[in-house]
Write a structure and sequence with these properties.
The structure is a homodimer. The radius of gyration of chain A is 19 Å and the shape is globular. Chain A has two domains: about 10-180 and about 320-330, Rossmann fold (3-Layer(aba) Sandwich), CATH 3.40.50; about 185-315, Hypothetical Protein Tm841, Chain: A,domain 3. In chain A, β5, α3 (about 105-120) and β6 form a beta-alpha-beta unit. In chain A, the strands form three sheets. Chain A has a six-stranded mixed β-sheet, with helices on both faces. The first copy, chain A, has a six-stranded mixed β-sheet with strand order 9-8-7-12-10-11. In chain A, strands 13-14 form a two-stranded antiparallel ribbon. Chain A contains eight helices and 14 strands. In chain A, α4 (about 150-165) crosses α8 (about 310-320) and α6 crosses α7. By secondary structure, chain A is α/β, with parallel strands linked by helices.
Chain lengths: ~325, ~325
Amino acid sequence: MKMLINTPESVVTDALRGMAAAHPDLVVDVENRVIVRRDAPVSGKVGLVSGGGSGHEPLHGGFVGAGMLDAVCPGAVFTSPVPDQMVRAATAVDSGAGVLFVVKNYTGDVLNFRMAAELAEDEGVQVATVVVDDDVAVTDSLHTAGRRGTGGTLFVEKIAGAAAAEGAPLDRVAGLARQVVESSRSFGVALSSCTTPAKGGPMFDLPAGELELGVGIHGEPGRERRPMMTAGEIADYAVDAVLTDLRPRHPVLLLVNGMGGTPLLELYGFGAEVHRVLGERDVPVARTLVGNYVTSLDMAGCSVTLCQADEELLRLWDAPVRTPALRWGC
Amino acid sequence: MKMLINTPESVVTDALRGMAAAHPDLVVDVENRVIVRRDAPVSGKVGLVSGGGSGHEPLHGGFVGAGMLDAVCPGAVFTSPVPDQMVRAATAVDSGAGVLFVVKNYTGDVLNFRMAAELAEDEGVQVATVVVDDDVAVTDSLHTAGRRGTGGTLFVEKIAGAAAAEGAPLDRVAGLARQVVESSRSFGVALSSCTTPAKGGPMFDLPAGELELGVGIHGEPGRERRPMMTAGEIADYAVDAVLTDLRPRHPVLLLVNGMGGTPLLELYGFGAEVHRVLGERDVPVARTLVGNYVTSLDMAGCSVTLCQADEELLRLWDAPVRTPALRWGC
C-alpha cells in the first residue's frame, strides 16, 4: 500500500511540522507533541484540552483555536498520548480558571488523562474531565470498556469551547460538555479497512462485497458484516441504530462524517438518505455538517452522529469558531 | 470496488439532494443540476458562475456563497455540464452587472461555456469568460488542448469572488481572474487510480510500487511513472516543476491539495516538505491551505498549487467568504 509519507516512524512528526507551517495561529511543539493556540492562556478563560491517537484528523489538532480547543496532544497513530503531553498542554493553557479534559472513551486515553489530571492538580491546575462515549454500535470493544467515543467528540469540543469562550466557569463548561455527551449518539460503517503506516497494509480483512456495520474508528469490529448495501439501506440501518438509543426531544445537530477514503460526492448522497430517514422518523434537523471530521486514516466508509440540541446548545454550536477545520462567524 | 451510493446513475442527483438538505443558504435545482446562492441575484453585483464534471468536490458546488461563486452547474462524473445548465445559472444570478464564467480548460467545458455565453448574451446577459489552465505537467492531454485547469481554479474563484462582492465591475473582475490564472501553477501526483461509479473499478492501471507524476484530475497521464517516492522526494519534484514555470516576484498562496483518498495526516506531512522546498528556493509563503479541495473521487495522491499574490490579491484572498467548503471572516 503506497502512502504519502517519508517513513512510518516520522508520520506524526512530519504532520506536526506541516501544521506549524500552515497555521501561524497555533504553536506546535513538535518534539513534545503538543499543539497550543498562540494566544494561550486566555485571561480568565477555562482551558479546553483534548487529544488521542493520531490518524483521525482533523480531530483533534484541526479543532484548536478561538471558540473551541486550547490545546491538544496527539499520540502515535491509533495510540494514546502520554500523561506528560497532557500535563504540558494543561499548564500551557491554564489561566487560573481551570482546565477541562475532553477524552474519548478508550482505555489508554482514559487512564493516561486520569494520571495527567492528578499530575496537573499537583502543579496547581484545577482539572475536570469529560469522557465521550457516543458510539451505540457495541458495548466494550477492542480498546474500550463501555462505548467508544467517536463523532460526538466534535459536538462536545465545539459547544464546550463556545461556553468557555464566553467566560463560563469550569463547572458550567464541564456540565455542558456532559450534557452534549448525553445528547449525542453515533454509528459508523466501513466499506474498506484503513491502512496504518506501521503495518503498511490493511489493518483488518473485509471481503470484497461485504461491509462492516458498527465499525470503530480504529477498525474495531462492529455489530455484523453484511453483503454490500446501498447508501439508502446503510442510512436506514445507521439512523435506526442511533434512534433506538436516543429519542430526541429537540431538533438535532447532524454530522454526516466521512472515515477518510470516501469521496465527498458520495458523502453528500449519503447525507440525502440520512435526511430522508430522519424525516420519516419525524426528527427535525437544525444543522447539518458533511465532511471528513473524525476519520480513520484512509478507511472508506461513513458515520452518522446526532446531537439533540436545546436552544442553548444550538446557540453555542452557532457561536463563532476559528480553527483549521471548523471556522465561522470570525 | 464498494461505493457509498444508491446506483451509479443516481450519484450526482443524490449528492445534489444532499447539498440541498445540508445547506439552506443554497437553492439546488436537482432536476436541472444548478446550484445558486439563495440571495441571488445580488443587486449591482457581477455574478460568478462555474461548473464542470462532478467528482472533484468540494469544487465547484462547495464554493457557492457570499464572497465566492453565485452559481454552479455540475455535470455527470468527469463530464462537462451542458449549455442549458450554464444559461440557467447565468440568468439566475445576473443583476444587470453581467456574469463571469470561470472555466477549467477541458475541451468539452470550453465549448459548452462558449455556446452558453452566446445563448446568455441573446437573453441580454453580458458575459465574460476566463479559462483556467494552471497545470504545468503537460501541454495537451486526454481532454484538453493546452494545459489542464486544476487547483488554481480555487484561487481564481475566491479572489474574483471577493472583487465582485466588493462591487467591482465585470471588466475588473474578469481582469483580476485572468491575473490569478497568470499567477497560478499546479502539479499533481497519483498514488492510486480513482474509481468511477460508472465503471465500478479503477479508471487506470497503476502498478503496485509506482506513482504517476503529473497526473490530471480525471486520471489523465502525467509526465512519467517512477518507483514509489517519499513525501520529501515528491515535494522536491512537484515544487521544482512549478517553479520551472513560475518565478514568483511576490509571496505565494499555497494550496496543498488532496486528491480525495489520502489522509489529512499525510497531507500535512507532505505540506511540511513543500514548505521546506519553498524555503530552500527562497519563495516566501503568505498563506497555506491544506486539505481536499480539488479532488478526483477516491484517488490517493496530492497536488501543489502556487499563486503569486501582490498586496491586492492577498487582500482579496483574505476577504470574507461564506461557502460550504471555504468560510472565514463572516
